[in-house]
Design a protein that fits this description.
One of its GO terms (molecular function) is alpha-galactosidase activity. This is Alpha-galactosidase. It is an enzyme of class 3 (hydrolase). The chain is α+β, with helices and mostly antiparallel strands and 733 residues long. Helix 7 runs parallel beside helix 8 and helix 10 packs parallel to helix 11. The chain has 13 helices and 38 strands. Strand 2 and strand 3 form a beta hairpin. It binds (2R,3S,4R,5S)-2-(hydroxymethyl)piperidine-3,4,5-triol. The site of (2R,3S,4R,5S)-2-(hydroxymethyl)piperidine-3,4,5-triol has 11 residues, from loops.
């Protein structure tokens, strides 16, 4: 049993393969967190919880009545701390009642354990078959009001995953406000912890940063309305010194695409509290009597064998139990996108020429990017007008799609449903459909405003106009872009007391629309995008199997971006393309080989006019596509190992190993060239110790244990940013 309740001890114990999580109901009915860490069986861990009377940390009334001064919500580890009742650390819930008071003292009421995993209405969440997961629901009630909270725990034993979420119910007769609702809290009774987070900016996303958690709050988050380029809603909590292959770490991934916060602090008695949820800034949720609020899910993945193992578990979880697209298990076509080749400036003939040149080299899918609709000749017009620009596409999207299909290729389309330009028919007819505050000029980014996705009429318009195109033309792939952050968040559709809900309702609206499209067009391969990787999160992966990783297609910068991304997300979901040189974003020139080496550690495609290549370069592209297909299974479904850290080392090396450990692919990219360079030795990982392996077509045979323990010298790489890969396969003896 993954979940055990011992009524006499009032203890809930959750076991995964390698971890244990324990909760107790205290003598006063509060839910106390006993432990989360390496597996411990058959043990009541309540002995860890010791109350000492500390000054300025009060006790609940009942405790004080019996002189139990050591029992304090301010020092005890808790499952779901609330604001207003004497715990001064970060709380998870702040409820405002009819009389303006802000407090909730949650007391245990009941529990439920069942096979399978809970789901959350209107929100993405990890899913599981009955035999893959168990759920624990714990119901808590405020001692003095009709606020009820259900905490959800999903236990996916094999993945070492525990998920958390909650619902807040108003069972009273008066409305309440939720000023803050986080999804989870974990109180670790130790203080030697670090938080690893992934910061960035447009075109440089998910750079790893490691900081010690100390006294005072350490937090990352987004108030941009999306998960953002600047901070990713995935963090790692670990003990000091944890590396790729050793040490205890906990990945925490928020399955949500809007504002978020991940916050950690060491409290006055040197214990570490971690909370995660929707960012409270600007958030205020009005809950009518008998209504409720669902807080999104947080996935915790545990490893006591370092961050490499943690990532691989998460990769497996997302590939098998989060992403729903059929393309998770089908080979995705090698793609060619016209954006960097043409931007807005193209004609149908030109696009067909580009596609044809690609087809000759083995490209399977041609994608028409931005610029095909309305008066979209530049970035200040057209968004919202989802009908073809007849100057560019005289026979509509259908006409182009037919030509592309006639070439024997699949056809894909770019859209940006959530946005609107003031210079558009949509804006001229429905100016009130965008987020903006009456009597204020809105903040503008890239010449565009944001549609109010919380409105059903807006979503219906988007669904109808875009699905008209998808029904008329045969579209095999859609890239769903989103090119600005939210500001001036105000909806013409909701009353003043509900304006604090709009950012969250926006995200729910996006999910609702995505769900409608995904379920009605399941054969389309959907790719998420937000100016590259500005909305690269587990929430989007529930709807789309891949996300464009970054607008930065410079292969060298990409080694860091993809390295950072790999900590929390599988390789199979990272959109990665070979683009032209000098690179559009950095001006750097890197060989075609290296550009492909890096793009192959992703979904792989091209983003350039392949017709402009020299004959020998075309030959290289042809063989790259063949190579990618050859290694497809191992890259997309295998285990991923980070062998170096490109942020700190002179060479980026990574490795894929198939699940049977019979094949491996190692990629090497030189980030700095040096004269008379020292050897680069690589220690392979994930092979079978006793098996014999051959490298490429070499004569030599190596034992797995030797490649992993004694290592292997990489041939000296000469020239700027050169690269190579080698293929390792087990030989039968
Ligand atoms: C941002 C995307 O990341 C690019 O790939 C491209 O689609 C542009 N938007 C088009 O506007």
């Amino acid at each position: 049993m993954a979940i055990i309740f011992e009524p006499n001890k009032k203890i809930f114990t959750l076991h995964t393969k390698n971890s244990t999580y324990q909760i107790q109901i205290s003598k006063y009915g509060h839910l106390i967190h006993n432990y989360y860490g390496s597996k411990i069986e058959n043990m009541d861990l309540s002995y860890l919880i010791q109350g000492i009377n500390r000054g300025f940390s009060g006790s609940p009334y009942e405790a004080m009545a019996v002189e139990d001064r050591g029992y304090s919500l301010d020092t005890y580890p808790q499952e779901y701390p609330t604001y207003g009742i004497g715990d001064y650390r970060s709380s998870c819930l702040s409820v405002e009642h009819e009389d303006g008071s802000q407090a909730a003292e949650l007391i245990y009421d009941s529990y439920k354990i069942y096979q399978g995993k809970y789901q959350l209405k209107g929100l993405p969440a990890v899913w599981a078959k009955e035999n893959e997961a168990q759920t624990l629901e714990i119901t808590l009630k405020d001692k003095y009001s009709d606020v009820k909270v259900i905490l959800y725990y999903g236990v996916l034993e094999e993945f070492d995953v525990i998920t958390r979420a909650c619902t807040i119910y108003n069972e009273g007769e008066y409305p309440i406000y939720l000023n803050k609702v986080f999804s989870c809290c974990i109180d670790f009774w130790k203080n030697n912890m670090e938080m690893i987070s992934f910061y960035g900016r447009h075109a440089m996303e998910r750079t790893l940063q490691r900081r010690k958690i100390e006294h005072g709050k350490l937090s990352v988050g987004s108030t941009r309305g999306t998960s953002s380029h600047q901070h990713n809603p995935f963090v790692i909590l670990c003990e000091e010194g944890v590396g790729e292959d050793h040490g205890v770490c906990y990945g925490a991934s928020f399955v949500y695409s809007g504002n978020f916060i991940a916050e950690a602090e060491v409290d006055q008695i040197n214990h570490t509290r971690f909370v995660m949820g929707i960012h409270p800034e600007g958030f205020r949720y009005y809950v009518e009597p008998k209504d409720c609020f669902f807080a999104p899910e947080v996935v915790f993945v545990y490893s006591d064998a370092g961050m490499g193992e943690m990532s691989r578990k998460l990769h497996d979880l997302y590939r098998n139990n989060l992403i729903r697209s059929k393309f998770m298990h089908e080979r995705r076509p090698v793609l060619l996108n016209n954006w960097e080749a043409t931007e807005f400036d193209f004609t149908q003939e030109h696009l067909v020429e580009i596609a044809k040149a690609g087809r000759e080299l083995g490209i399977e899918l041609f994608v028409m990017d931005d610029g095909w609709f309305g008066e979209r000749d530049h970035d200040k017009a057209g968004l919202g007008d989802w009908f073809p620009n007849k100057k560019k596409l005289p026979n509509g999207v259908k006409g182009l799609a037919e030509q592309i299909h006639a070439l024997g290729m699949k056809f894909g389309l770019w859209i940006e449903p959530e946005m609107i330009n003031e210079d558009s028919e949509l804006y001229r007819n429905h100016a009130d459909w965008c987020l903006s505050i009456p009597n204020r000029k809105p903040n503008v980014e890239r010449g565009q405003l944001v549609l109010d996705m919380s409105r059903k009429d807006v979503r219906d318009y988007l669904y109808d106009s875009i699905s008209k195109i998808l029904d008329e033309a045969k579209v095999d792939y859609v890239k769903w872009d989103m090119n600005r952050n939210l500001s001036d968040v105000w909806s013409a559709k909701v009353p003043s007391y509900r304006q604090g809900e709009v950012s969250h309702r926006y995200v729910l609206g996006v999910y609702e629309l995505m769900e409608r499209f995904m379920s009605n067009y399941p054969d389309i391969l959907w790719e998420g995008c937000s100016g590259g990787g500005g909305r690269f999160d587990a929430g989007i992966l529930y709807y789309m199997p891949q996300i464009w990783c970054s607008d930065n297609t410079d292969a060298i910068e990409r080694t860091s971006i993809q390295y950072g991304t790999s900590f929390g997300y599988p390789i199979s979901c990272m959109g990665a393309h070979v683009s032209a040189v000098p690179n559009h974003q950095t001006g750097r020139s890197v060989s075609l080989n290296t550009r492909a080496e890096v793009a192959m550690a992703g979904t792989f495609g091209y983003e350039m006019d392949l017709g402009t290549l020299r004959e020998e370069e075309k030959e290289i592209v042809r063989s790259q596509i063949q190579e990618f297909k050859k290694y497809y299974n191992i890259i997309q479904y295998g285990d991923y190992y980070r062998l170096t850290n490109p942020l700190e080392e002179e060479v980026a090396i990574w490795q894929f190993v198939d699940k049977e450990k019979k094949k491996a692919l190692v990629s090497v990219v030189s980030l700095r060239t040096r004269a008379n360079a020292p050897f680069i030795k690589v220690y392979l990982k994930g092979l079978k110790e006793d098996s014999l392996y051959r490298i490429d077509d070499g004569e030599e045979v190596y034992r797995g244990s030797a490649l992993m323990k004694a290592g292997f010298h990489i041939p000296v790489l000469k020239g700027d940013y050169s690269s190579l890969h080698f293929y390792i396969r087990e030989i039968e003896v």
